[in-house]
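Hey, can you fold this one?
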Amino acid sequence: QVQLVESGGGLAQPGGSLRLFCIASGSGFRIAAVAWYRQAPGKERELVARMSTTATTTYADSVKGRFTISRDNAKNTLYLQMNSLKPEDTAVYYCNIYINRLDYWGQGTQDTVSS
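Sure. Predicted structure:
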């Protein structure tokens, strides 16, 4: 069984940075595909970034060049580094793990970008 706990969200100014953490309990993280999603008020949840177990990454066009997904298998931790933040990045962010044909989700963390 897998449980995901997120942290690192908060308030940032436009042009600032935030770093999100997602710590996985249970086994299987090393062989899991991982991803970050976000959902802004009134909008559908969208894929922000994902990484395969072979380190292949995919980013939404809106965040390319600004966000970076990474992982530390030894610490069972998934990261999202967010730089050059824009107000439109304001959303609830969710970490995701796909393993053994099942999806697991973090609780969500609010990130607000505002002056």
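The two ends are 41 Å apart (CA to CA). Let me know if you want another pass with a different chain boundary.
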